[in-house]
Amino acid sequence: MKLIKALLATSVLVLAGSGAAYAQNYPERPVTLVVPFAPGGAVDMVGRFIADRLSAIWGQTIVVENIPGAGTLLATGQVSSASPDGYTLLINSATVTMRAAIQETPLVDPAEDLTHIGRIGATPLLLATSPSLGVSNYDEFAALAKERELKYATVGVGSLNQFASEILRSAADLQMTPVHYNGGSPAMTDVIGGHADLFYGSITQVIPHVREGLMTGIVVSSAERSDILPELPSVGELGLDDAVIENWWGLFGPKGMDEAIVDQINADLNTVLQTPEMAEFLQSDGARPLWGTPEEFTEQVKSEYATWRRVANEQGIRPE
Amino acid sequence: MDFVANLTLGLQTAMTLENLIYAGVGCLLGTLIGVLPGLGPLTTISMLLPFTFGLSPIGALIMLAGIYYGAAYGGSTTAILVNLPGEASSVVTTIDGHQMAKQGRAGAALAAAAIGSFVAGSLGVLVLAVFSGPIAQVAFSFGPAEYFALMFMGLIGAVSLTSGPLLKSLCMIVVGLLIGLVGMDVSSGVVRFSFGSIALWEGVDFIVISIGIFAFAEIVSTLERQKTGEAQVAPIASIMPTRQDIKRMTPAILRGSTLGSFLGILPGAGVSLASFFAYSLEKKTSKYRHELGKGAIEGVAGPESANNAAAQTSFIPTLTLGIPGSATMALMLGAMVIHNIQPGPSVVTRNPDLFWGLIVSMWIGNLFLVILNLPLIGMWVRLLRIPYSMLFPAILMFCCIGVYASSYSVLDVFMVAGLGAAGYVLAKLDCEPAPLLLGFILGPMVEEYFRRALVLSDGDFSVFVSRPISAALLAVSIAMLVFAALPKLRKARQTAFAED
Amino acid sequence: MLSIRSQKDLVAGAIFVAIGIFFVVSSLEYRLGTPARMGPGFFPLILGILLSLLGSGVILTALRGEPDEGGRLDTFNLRGLGVIIFTTVLFGILIQPLGLLVTLSICAAITSLAAPGARPLVIAGNVGVQLVIGLGVFHLLLKLQIPLLPRILGF
């Protein structure tokens, strides 16, 4: 049995690894990929997809472990204190820079306490309103939000939804206040039912409900219009440059990983990201693959983390 | 009517040999993980998800659904046999089910659970097939105020879970509510009562409480009874239920199924509440309500039916709205997306073969479950004849493995040890644990919905009475309270008059 | 000494009051908030007060009335409780460094000692049964990610 496994492993390695110069024999044993969300969400799906492809390249099992909680910080904290041997990896979203930014002394510093291996993909956000609000485009929405205070649903204090909504509120001079939920589904259910007014979340998460007509799409958070929702304006074209925001996913490891291993994982990750299936997998929901070097990723995490700390202070986003 | 055509389409899809095998494998696996403490459908489905990538979408979903409702059913077995609720929904099954087992009627209790689950499952599937479209909209009419009122009603009903003194049950509910508040508060983002431990940020896991307070306390108590020579299990009367049993459980099954079918539709209420509500209902309406708590078959049949019916109808919001009511349903939703099916109002028209195939296979799955489990009852009951000195180390170790495997957290294992001691002390003080469990489940929800309703109404308390559903539910709760207190008041007045 | 109706209720009530006071005191460090934006301290404070009151009620009813035979405190089975708590804690300590099989063997052997009339054969039987089930069900069938053998052996 073991022999068969070993044979299989080598044959896959030979197939996939021909030409690539490996610094060492990484990985020699199963790798754990920690997903900081409950199974079933977008990050979980992307994580499982990547794990599936990387394990084919490496000829090693990748065990996906879901550790939801504390707005991804629980999992992030655990990974940051794991051994930096490359056998414990983490997929996380832009959320990690935000949830840490609202804490006075963050449980884990996403810029300093992690190794940034590589980016995976990015998706703009889609603001969608309850049909009962009676607005059908951005102008009507903005007019209403200047007239009275709207309630936006979020998945928690310091979440992507709250930061996106707050920077839009401040840039467009609207009146909005958060209502926090325990997850995207209950939050959107209340918006669809007309109990809360709007939800501003990743396109991947919101678009199914907009397509079904359960919510009304209003505006997309990117600088340009989105390919899959060309009829909706972007905040960029409305002149609200300060409100441009994108959610992203990236691969992390504990701080202090061996550079050769980081480069190898980054290279294999980029190989996966450039396959047509990966593009198709992400694009069907309005996301796109995003690749690059570990250094670029570090830069992005650092600058966004600094930005969100500033925004959190300005807008008073903190646990209280 | 298209209904027949739709069912035919469903039958064609589900009745292929391949899909039948998937349904069977799913049910078997589900029953197994339901029986094992700690492991829930969520863990299993997420572990098995990658293996379904290679299957056809309908095959994959049929198997995953089989695991889901197999687990919903399997949890009752350990609840009845060894007083160990593996899932939140089987907590109430322990109350009468384990009493029945102690009286030598484990077979009848298990059969009641199996038959009740089958009838309820069939009814749930029928609701799903006929009404899924229009009924799904009900989910949206339940906002925070309505959910708060529903939870409040559940708390009032929790008093009926015990036959002990009212004040002590109330205390146990409040203790449960308080333990439920540990962890991050959704509304403010503040972490409460974590005592500096990051592992407590997400609160205490249900399985930790239920294994500690139920299973461990039960093991120690049983060891103690053995020492003093009290017989723990009466000789087994008969494996199958008597005609009298069947006559008594039928109305309970019907009541439970109806209630469960309705509660399953509400994504914010969750399947776990269905069994609690059903038990309260039995306590109010059953002809044999005075026997509840002492081993009445209604106390098993009603809640088990409600649980299984809710497990079926909770597919309604997931399938037809794309809104999952629980983590497990969210995973099912994810599985559908992976297989390129986007659930939503148009899934019925876009993927009719999938929708109807799944519905028919759900019913087949329920049939499998009952066929599978009725013969197994004999085996389970025989398990009780194993000397306890051999049985309990196994139960204990399964609990430890289950707790550890549910989150790979060593702290959880330590907490189970501590809660086990606490549970034993409570049992010694005649404090019954079921109300605590319900308080624990409802605690965070009650607070969350209450505060959210007030945020949405800008602090106006009248939302709870100005919205019709919420007002009606609160009125029922208050009526329940008054009716519970009335007999006592009347008695007090009578004694007052007598003294005159 | 007062005439106590139920020692059990007296102790239970005291425990409830203590838990209630504990939560009241600890909830004071959190914000209470306003009705529209209730703080994290509000609910625990109210529940803590409620529990203290209800617990006091339990104490009062425990003190009133004729002594009740069923209300007398039983002796505790400290040996049984001790063994079970000890084994569980031991399981928690050993599972990560030693893996499933070794931990199971040790813990199963210890728990077997708690039952009256434990014999070597029973203990060996318990260990055997659990190893088979641990391996078969949890490892092979459910594929749990718990290492089987001690880490030192390279698994």
What would you note in describing this structure?
The complex is a heterotrimer of chains A (320), B (500) and C (155). With 320 residues, chain A is an alpha/beta fold. Chain A contains 11 helices and 10 strands. Chain A folds into 2 domains: 2-123 and 247-315, Bordetella uptake gene, domain 1 (D-Maltodextrin-Binding Protein, domain 2), CATH 3.40.190; 124-243, Periplasmic binding protein-like II (D-Maltodextrin-Binding Protein, domain 2, 3-Layer(aba) Sandwich). Chain A has helices at 2-17, 42-58, 73-80, 95-101, 138-147, 160-172, 184-192, 203-211, 259-273, 276-283, 294-315, and strands spanning 31-35, 62-66, 88-93, 114-129, 150-154, 176-180, 198-202, 216-220, 246-254, 288-289. In chain A, 55% of the residues are buried. The model of chain A is unreliable at 1-22 (pLDDT under 50). Chain B has 500 residues and is an all-alpha fold. Chain B contains 22 helices and 2 strands. Chain B is globular and about 60 Å long. By secondary structure, chain C is mainly α. Chain C has 2 domains: 7-71; 78-153, no CATH class. In chain C, helix 1 (7-27) runs antiparallel to helix 2 (42-63) and helix 3 (78-112) packs across helix 4. The relative contact order of chain C is 0.11. Classes of the chains: A alpha/beta (320), B mainly alpha (500), C mainly alpha (155). Chains in contact: A-B, A-C, B-C. At the B-C interface, helix 9, helix 10, helix 18, helix 19 and helix 20 of B face helix 1, helix 2, helix 3 and helix 4 of C.
